[in-house]
């Protein structure tokens, strides 16, 4: 798998990324502990049972990170100079242990770099979708990419 260069994208390009990931208890636990997030909804089964969800809720920042990670191989692997920002991040549905997620990406904007003629900015709309076809995370990512040749 390899990413595309700036000049290989067009607005409206859409990808469904082949890699899927079933979220495990260990994924959620390690990510939550590693990022020092003490939220009981992510760590405490008994507290989570008492919540409106009735079970452990997967850490949203894990879901976001997984969504972007699932897209990298097809979008920016080997062509990225830097991620410039993530905008309009939403999580319309919860993610639970055992959910299987895949990601989609669409190019929603392209812009030549004004200061770096060998690069351009691609804005992607990324979505993470669960096994029920529900969008669980969405954001726009602006990436500074190298041009081909």
Overall description:
This protein has 149 residues and is of the alpha+beta class. It is 24% helix and 35% strand. Strands 1, 2, 3, 4, 5 and 6 form a six-stranded antiparallel β-sheet that branches. The longest helix is centred in the middle third of the chain and has 16 residues, at 60-75. This is MaoC family dehydratase.
Brief characterization of the structure:
It comes from Qipengyuania citrea. This protein is of the alpha+beta class. It is built from four helices and six strands.
Layout of helices and strands:
Blueprint: E1 14-16, E2 21-22, H1 25-34, H2 40-43, H3 45-50, H4 60-75, E3 80-90, E4 100-112, E5 119-129, E6 135-146
Antiparallel strand pairs: 1-4, 2-4, 3-6, 4-5, 5-6
Q: Percent of residues in helical segments? A: 10-25%
Instruction: Calculate the mean pLDDT score and round it.
Output: 97
Order of helices and strands: EEHHHHEEEE
Number of helices: 4
Distance between the termini: 19 Å
Proportion of β residues?
25-35%
Keywords:
35% strand; 4 helices; alpha+beta; MCH/BMMD; 6-stranded antiparallel beta sheet; single chain; 24% helix; 149 residues; HotDog_dom_sf; MaoC-like_dom; MaoC family dehydratase
